[in-house]
Design a protein that fits this description.
Blueprint lengths: L1 E2 L15 E2 L25 H18 L4 E3 L16 E3 L9 H17 L2 H27 L8 H4 L4 H16 L8 H14 L17 E3 L7 H11 L2 H18 E2 L4 E2 L2 E3 L11 H17 L7 H16 L8 E2 L9 E2 H16 L5 H16 L21 H5 L11 H17 L2 E4 L2 E4 L2
Antiparallel strand pairs: 1-2, 3-4, 5-8, 6-7, 9-10, 11-12
Helix pairs in contact: 1-14, 2-3, 2-5, 2-14, 5-6, 5-7, 7-8, 7-9, 9-10, 9-11, 11-12, 11-14, 12-14
Amino acid sequence: MLFFCTALCAGAPAFAQYVEHKGNDVTSPLHLLKPAYVTPYGETKMADVKVSLDRVFNYLDKTTPFELIDKVSGKVAADLKKADSNSIFKPGDYRLTSYEWGVTYTGMLEVATATGDQKFKDYTLKRVSFLANVVSAYQKYLQTNKGAVTPVRSVIDPHALDDAGSIAAAMIKAQRTGKVKADLRPVIDHYLNYIMTKEFRLKDGTLARNRPQPNTLWLDDLYMSLPAMAQMGVLTGETKYFDEAVRQYRQFAERMFNPEKGLYMHGWVQDMDPHPQFHWARANGWALMTKIELLDALPVNHPGRTYILQMLKAHVKGLAALQDGTGFWHQLLDRNDSYLETSATAIYSYCIARAVNKGWLDAKAYGPMALLAWNAVSTKINANGQIEGTCVGTGMGFDPAFYYYRPINVFAAHSYGPVLLAGAETYRLLQEHPFVINDSSVQMYK
């Protein structure tokens, strides 16, 4: 006998599949038939998570060299004191100083902590030490060669929060391991000085940009600034950093969070009326991860913790209602005809799993969806360790076509850090909250 259900069946999801079985309602427990899942279901294992993480590591370790070379001869500049305007970073697949790579450095540290595999930590420590030493060499070089082109312009002279916040947060986390050989503190202080005193702000002090419109808030900028502030608070013990981070978050959320949907708009422009709301998935991811970073760093008695936790729960509730049956989320979260996107799904997988592991979210309610999201993301790690289905860098738009047709590319750097983070936290989730299959569904009881 052949039982089938297609998208034409009443109430059936579009991805329902044919399922072959023998027997009937009297002779067979039909409720135990194995569905033809598109994404692996109920099969998440720690060993498999580690295999995926190792595959990503091997690819990144091979394709992100940390050397200076002469741009003409290709000769390695072994002595950084001799670095000059002809020196460049040895080309790889990704930029060592990008905000995306700040997330990757943090992800590597988290995988090492979760799994005990120190090669992941070494990846970050070696590269941030290299960057600090290169910056120090060029600061001396620029004293006698003012205006010279250097490969570390974004570090020495940040032009935007993208240049500063993500890398700064990762460097502080690396510094806190006590294992970094180089002196990161001058670079960290320089980054924080830019964030705290030099970035453009609205009249009320909210961090802002003058593109694509004057006086614009980018949801992305929550992550490009607040985690660095919070980590600086941990590093120095100065409460001003915690206070400013919470203040900034509140001022963004008051303008950009839609409480009815539990989602954020991607951009807010002063004096725009009416205000289109496009709930771009990755920007919502940066906002969600910012809340996780703040809760990780804020002192237990800080008055802002309750508010941040409340907003975390509201945001995750909104996201949970929109997870696709495949485990992914859509490029525009509330528009199911937009494509399924990997980087945002990885961020949500990480954040929800971490919140469950920390006790901020209920494991029974949210653990299974975090596992499903990881399973979905893991299917996008190809044999080479590259991550597929990632939206490329995206500015801000005010029409749907802009978001619907953003390209995807394996060289879009935005997925690698989130995938490492998601894998690390899923590994912990399987340790702390092992799931069982009850009546064919994933359940968590602990």
